[in-house]
Amino acid sequence: MSYSPQMCRVCGAVANGIGSGEVLGLVVQYAECPACGYVQTEQPHWLEQAYAEAINVSDTGILARNQVNADIVVSALSLLGGLGLRVVDAAGGYGILVRLLRDLGVDAYWSDQYCANLVARGFEYDGAGAGLVTAFEAFEHFVEPGEELDRLLAIAPNVLLSTVLIPDPTPQPGDWWYYGSEHGQHIGFFRARTLQKLAEARGKCFVTDGRAYHLITDRAVSGLAWKVLLRLRKVVSLVAGWQLESKTWEDHLTLSGFKDKAE
Ligand SMILES: [Zn+2]
Q1: How wide is the angle at C-alpha 58 spanned by C-alphas 52 and 61, nearest 5°?
Q2: What's 124's DSSP letter?
Q3: What is the separation of C-alpha 171 from the centre of its chain, rounded to a whole number of angstroms?
Q4: Is 62-164+203-259 CATH 3.40.50?
Q5: C-beta separation of 165 from 191 below 8 A
Q6: What is the mean pLDDT of the chain?
Q7: pTM
Q8: Are the beta carbons of 140 and 187 closer than 8 angstroms?
Q9: CA of 112 to the centre of ligand 1 (A)
Q10: What is the pLDDT of residues 176-192, one digit of tens each?
Q11: Measured in angstroms, how far is the CA atom of residue 142 from the centroid of ligand 1?
Q12: What is the spatial distance between Cα 135 and Cα 108, in angstroms, rounded to a whole number?
């Protein structure tokens, strides 16, 4: 099969073909950008099929991951100097993270145009200013990562994101679990330098744990501090809990219409 060149969807350079893999029964070409290190599928034309269900069926880690993510959001807020900052979870899925954060006492909201929210209805993001926006397991789904990052930065000046960095040397298509060929939703894979370029092009600082959790921010934060905080996230979350007041009961009163009567 002849290979047609791809343009990097992050930086626009010509990407080099690295082979083909099977995605949802289709043969799909992959390419790697020599300039920014981004690895991408060919222009994805299978997304309608891939998103027949917004949450893919093989995602068994959804609850455990949200628990970890809640501690990581609290760690990010600690690093950014404000547990009271408003948080918006973009691509909030079922709303699990927002509910967990509100239970911890964080002023969290969600926004997701693709997935029906199940557990955090009533806390939709209303466009008001926020201090931190989160995008967990979203960037590898984006067709245009730069444009999506701009949308996130329009919500808040600090972006906490997770996406698993692609190993070096680059695995062959089909040889790495995160390619996700069984669900077809992962179409782009990042290196630290890819994310760094995206951040720097927007005048932002970038720190990463070197694996999956990354922060794009206005603050001059230390990469070492970020790594240490992530290691100690359970303790950080516990200590933060002493300073925060859980919103579980308050939210119940608000949503059930009993708040006025209780006050
Ligand atoms: Zn590139």
Answers
A1: 120
A2: B
A3: 22
A4: yes
A5: yes
A6: 92
A7: 0.92
A8: yes
A9: 27
A10: 999 998 889 999 999 99
A11: 14
A12: 13
Structure tokens at 83: 């547990």
Identity of the residue numbered 160: L
How far, in Å, is the centroid of ligand 1 from the Cα of 81? 33
Q: How many CB atoms are closer than 10 A to CB 203?
A: 7
The domains of the chain are located at 62-164+203-259
Residue 193 CA to ligand 1 center (angstroms) comes to 10
CA of 229 to the centre of ligand 1 (A): 30
| Nearest by Cα to 184 from 49, 78, 58, 91 | 49
Q: How confident is the model at residue 58 (pLDDT cuts 50, 70, 90)?
A: confident
Which candidate, 116, 64, 70, places its Cα nearest to that of 89? 70
Q: Which two tokens stand for residue 234?
A: 């359970």
Cβ burial 172-183 (10 Å sphere, 16+ → b, else e): ebeebeebbbeb
Higher pLDDT, 258 or 174: 174
Nearest to 135 by CA among 92, 106, 198, 77: 92
Q: How confident is the model at residue 116 (pLDDT cuts 50, 70, 90)?
A: confident
- Rg, the chain, Cα only: 19
Distance of CA 37 from the midpoint of ligand 1 (Å): 6
Say which residue the tokens 């955090």 belong to: 120
